[in-house]
Write a structure and sequence with these properties.
Elements (H helix, E strand, L loop, with lengths): L1 H25 L4 E8 L4 H19 L8 E8 L4 H11 L4 E5 L4 H14 L3 E3 L15 E3 L4 H14 L4 E7 L2 H15 L4 E8 L6 H12 L5 E5 L2 H4 L2 H7 L8 E4 L1 H9 L5 H5 L5 E5 L5 H14 L7 H22 L6 E2 L19 E2 L2 H10 L2 E3 L2 E3 L11 E8 L2 E9 L3 E3 L3 H4 L38 E6 L9 E2 L6 E2 L1 H11 L7 E6 L8 H9 L5 E2 L7 H4 L3 E2 L4 E3 L1 E6 L1 E3 L12 H22 L10 H14 L12 H30 L2 E3 L5 H6 L4 E4 L4 H8 L7 E4 L2 H10 L8 E5 H8 L5 E4 L6 E3 L2 E2 L4 H16 L1 H9 L23 H27 L12 H18 L8 H40 L7
Parallel strand pairs: 1-2, 1-3, 3-4, 4-5, 6-7, 6-8, 8-9, 9-10, 18-21, 18-22, 28-29, 28-30
Antiparallel strand pairs: 10-15, 11-12, 13-14, 15-16, 16-17, 19-20, 23-33, 24-32, 25-30, 25-31, 26-27
GO biological process, one term: cellular response to oxygen-containing compound
Subcellular location: Membrane
Protein name: Glutamate receptor
Length: 941
């Protein structure tokens, strides 16, 4: 009974499900209307129209999609007009449209998206690539192609791959062009590149004169990298004008966005005169994976159009958009969705109005259809078709092609997964993502001038504009840079280096020197550098130190002169005197060395006292022996021999220490007695920091900032000085008479100053390391080329010749050695003394360990007194320890001596045995004789 009941229940449920499914199928309408808005007579629209028609045929002929329901795509021409597009979208609302495919124009998409939002109708655009079309603002807008955000990222990575810094952007001045270039600017900024010039064109019809006016302006810009982001129908008209102006060669680089790929793919064969003007252009094209279905559709396409119209990527996305809507509507019906519309009270027309807004209605289940579109996942002609969480298409990628001859060739790919590569994105998707610089690669490009060498990317335009070079008007140290009196010309070491470097550049650089400063005192070099950031100067030339706070705002060339802050102070000559022999060693060195002599002597005495007679005797004799032995090692003339291995080890290490100290002492004393010695109370920057005397520095130098901000020296101690004469006067006066105790300035200035002032010297070490360079704006390509030229000057010797011309030193500079102490300090010998001390302690430890082992075998006799047993034991051990330390131990001889003794003992034993045997024989003979005598027998001798 239970089995029969279960069978009836299963039959009932199956029937209910079948009836529900049939009712759901039967509830589907016979036809579903979908709108399509685009411009029929355009490069994209002509292909999209045919692709949408073919897609509608394929959907309606497929029994697995929209079972029993026909898809009706109603196409409307927007003529690239936002107003017309809005009108056509409103008209669609009168015909129960559930979705709209298009528009192709970003401008129209912005307007129609407002209508789609209000009426809850999904809007699927296969060609609106404006990155600002956001799903946050337009939740019913879906882009069924790739956003220009990815395309501009690809272009920025190409710019960075070839090392270019500045580009020129030519764009159509509408939402599509402006927002695309804005995205490019953001992506370039991430790579420290920039757009140096933006040229917009009218979004409508553009004649040859307008294009020529714009390109003439572009030709006056120094950048030669041009990104062309315009509409397909007018974009290719730029190249004939550019060729006429000579802008398709001579280092120009043209990068066209995917509009040009649409032109090349849709036109089966462009006229040869048009193709000749595009030679060397780089073009981006949306990547669509190759597949059998795609190849089959291309063959079918050629039959449909008779070979008169090509198929581009936007046509493929239009085809897949129709299939996307069909799959979403089919899922919509399977979920019980019903196509119904309702009026919105906000759209009711006022009385007497002829707009009839009440005819438009809201799609009731528009949200459900939108969700099914977003959840769709199928494989179309463009590959896997699905949306990311941000509503962008899955796996954006672009082909990078190079226009050559009558066609083009593939030089690589860009994907958001791994960047630039010569491998197909489908292959890269199977590997771990790799965006490292070394993994980025493209095939060689044939550039517009017909060469394979990568263009530099910029030149100085021949438009009369000169490089404005700021030059400091120095009033001191004019050998480095100075303005010729009564003229605008400059001369000096820095000027000659700059002009020599400019002459080595492979291009002409027109420039003009502009003086900076009042001419009465040295100007502030930090202010000079800041003038570059404000645009007052295009460069700065002079003795400009490369320091941290300046490198943050400008770019410097390779240093052409080494520099660094040094301390210059007065000095006095030292005389040798009667006690000159004490000067080679510092006081600490003398004390430590003497202590170690005594310490080593005591250690050797302890190690040798028990076994060596040279270290035994009366206490007075032993003390004299210790002192004599330790001091005599200084001259390696000690007469006492060491018998223990530990003593020999300590003595060997100590003699090595004495050898090093003795040699260093001899060398230092020789220098003191034979070379003139100089001394100064200032030992370097550290002694200046500890004092409170005034310090001089050069006006305009960065030394003031460094001393006050970095070293923490009070500004009240810093005294500005403007000339070498003021340097000498302030140093001679000294701090007590209104002068300075020392001067801190850069080494090149000080070397020139000391070449004529022989009573001052550099004290201490150079405490900063930097150089002089020429300053340019950030990311200036001229800074890189000038650095290369400076390196070439250094390698061919011209830099040294310029230096010798302006900064030839006098004979005084030969004596201008830095003041340094000739004394030997303890820190130079700490390692040696440490090794010797450790060896002594190890030897003593081993020695006392041996004594303690012998002491452990000593057991004192038991004391009868229990109360005094502990103290007696301790005193006994102490006395035994001292007696072991002092007792004479016979030196143990070698094993050979023991073997000789054993041998002699064995020989004595053998002699004794032989003597014993002979005595026994004699006793036997005597017994025989006695026996014969007693028996009266004759003796037989």
């Amino acid at each position: 009974m239970n089995a029969i009941g279960s069978l009836w229940l299963l039959f009932f449920l199956s029937g209910a499900l079948i009836n529900g499914y049939c009712s759901n199928v039967n509830s589907r309408p016979d036809m579903v209307n979908v709108g399509a808005i685009f411009t029929f007579d355009s490069t994209i629209g002509r292909v999209a129209k045919v692709a949408i028609q073919e897609a509608m045929k394929d959907v309606n002929s497929d029994p697995n999609v929209l079972r029993g329901t026909k898809l009706n795509v109603i196409m409307s021409n927007s003529n690239c007009s936002g107003f017309v597009g809005m009108v056509e979208a409103l008209r669609f609302m009168e015909t129960d449209i559930v979705a709209i495919i298009g528009p192709q124009s970003s401008v129209v998409a912005h307007i129609v998206s407002h209508v789609a939002n209000e009426l809850h109708v999904p809007l699927l655009s296969f060609a609106a690539t404006d990155p600002t079309l956001s799903s946050l603002q337009f939740p019913y807008f879906l882009r069924t192609t790739h956003s220009d955000l990815y395309q501009m990222t690809a272009i920025a990575e190409i710019i960075g791959y070839y090392g270019w810094k500045e580009v020129i952007a030519i764009y159509v001045d509408d939402d599509y062009g402006r927002n695309g270039v804005a995205a490019l600017n953001d992506k370039l900024a991430e790579r420290r590149c920039k757009i140096s010039f933006k040229g917009g064109i009218h979004p409508g019809s553009v004649d040859r004169g307008d294009i020529m006016d714009l390109l003439v302006k572009v030709a006056m810009i120094q950048s030669r990298i041009i990104v062309l982001h315009v509409n397909p129908d007018v974009g290719y008209n730029f190249f004939p004008v550019a060729q006429y102006l000579g802008m398709m060669g001579n280092g120009f680089v043209w990068i066209a966005t995917d509009w040009l790929a649409s032109v090349l793919d849709s036109a089966v064969r462009l006229p040869s005169e048009i193709m000749n003007t595009m030679q060397g252009v780089l073009v981006l094209r949306q990547h669509t994976p190759d597949s059998e279905r795609r190849k089959s559709f291309f063959s079918r396409w050629n039959k449909i159009n008779g070979g008169s119209l090509g198929l581009h990527a936007y046509g493929l996305y239009a085809y897949d958009s129709v299939w996307l809507v069909a799959h979403a509507i089919d899922a919509f019906f399977n979920q019980g969705g019903v196509i119904s519309f309702s009026n919105d009270s906000r759209l009711l027309s006022a009385e007497g109005s002829n707009l009839h807004l009440e005819a438009m209605s809201i799609f009731d289940d528009g949200d459900l259809l939108l969700r099914n579109i977003l959840w769709s996942n199928f494989v179309g002609l463009t590959g896997p078709f699905k949306f990311n969480p941000d509503r962008s298409l899955f796996q954006p990628a672009y082909d990078i092609i190079n226009v050559i001859g009558t066609g083009y060739r593939q030089i690589g790919y860009w994907s958001n997964y791994s960047g630039l590569s010569t491998k197909l994105p489908e292959i890269l998707y199977t590997m771990p993502p790799n965006r490292s610089t070394s993994s980025q690669s493209l095939y060689p490009v044939i550039w517009p001038d017909g060469t394979l060498s990568i263009p530099r990317g910029w030149v100085f335009p021949n438009n009369g504009k000169q490089l404005r070079v700021g030059v400091p008007r120095r009033v001191s140290f004019r050998e480095f840079v100075s303005q010729e009196r009564g003229t605008d010309n400059f001369q000096g070491f820095c000027i000659d280096v700059f002009m020599a470097a400019v002459n080595l550049l492979p291009y002409a650089v027109p420039y003009i020197f502009i003086p900076f400063g009042n001419g009465t005192e040295n100007p502030s070099y930090s202010e000079l550098v800041n003038m570059i950031t404000t645009g007052n100067f295009d460069a700065a030339v002079g003795d400009i130190a490369i320091v941290t706070n300046r490198t943050r705002i400008v770019d410097f060339t390779q240093p052409y002169a080494s520099s660094g802050l040094v301390v210059v102070a007065p000095f006095e000559k030292l005389h040798t005197g009667a006690w000159a022999f004490l000067r080679p060693l510092s006081r600490q060195m003398w004390i430590v060395t003497g202590c170690f002599f005594l310490f080593v002597g005591i250690v050797v005495w302890i190690l040798e006292h028990r076994i060596n007679d040279d270290f035994r005797g009366s206490p007075k004799k032993q003390i004299i022996t210790i002192l004599w032995f330790s001091l005599s090692t200084l001259f390696f003339s000690h007469r006492e021999n060491t018998a223990s291995n530990l003593g020999r080890m300590v003595l060997l290490i100590w003699l090595f220490v004495v050898l090093i100290v003795n040699s260093s002492y001899t060398a230092s004393l020789t220098s003191i007695l034979t070379v003139q010695q100089l001394a100064s109370p200032i030992k370097g920057i550290e002694s200046l920091k500890k004092g409170d005397e005034p310090i001089g520095y050069q006006v305009g130098s960065f030394a003031e900032h460094y001393l006050s901000e970095e070293l923490g020296i009070s500004k009240s101690r810093l005294k500005p000085l403007g000339s070498p004469e003021e340097y000498a006067s302030a140093l001679k006066l000294g701090p007590n008479k209104g002068g300075v105790v020392a001067i801190v300035d850069e080494r090149p200035y000080m070397e020139l100053f000391l070449s004529s002032q022989c009573s001052f010297r550099v004290v201490g070490q150079e405490f900063t390391k930097n150089g002089w360079g020429f300053a340019f704006p950030r990311d200036s390509p001229l800074a890189i080329d000038m650095s290369t030229a400076i390196l070439e000057l250094s390698e061919n010797g011209d830099l040294q010749r310029i230096h010798d011309k302006w900064l030839k030193q006098s004979s005084c500079i030969l004596e201008n050695a830095e003041l340094e102490s000739d004394q030997l300090h303890l820190q130079s010998f700490v390692g040696l003394f440490l090794i010797c001390g450790i060896a002594c302690f190890i030897a003593l430890f081993i020695y006392f360990l041996q004594i303690m082992r012998k002491l452990a075998r000593y057991s004192p006799t038991e004391s009868s007194s229990t109360s005094h047993q502990g103290s007696t034991l301790r005193s006994g051990r102490l006395r035994k320890f001292l007696s072991l330390m002092d007792e004479k131990k016979e030196p143990s001889h070698g094993g050979s001596k023991r073997r000789k003794i054993e041998k002699s003992l064995s020989e004595n034993d053998r002699d004794k045995e032989s003597r014993n045997s002979s005595n026994d024989g004699q006793r036997e003979v005597r017994a025989n004789v006695d026996a014969r005598r007693s028996s009266s027998l004759p003796l037989n001798l």
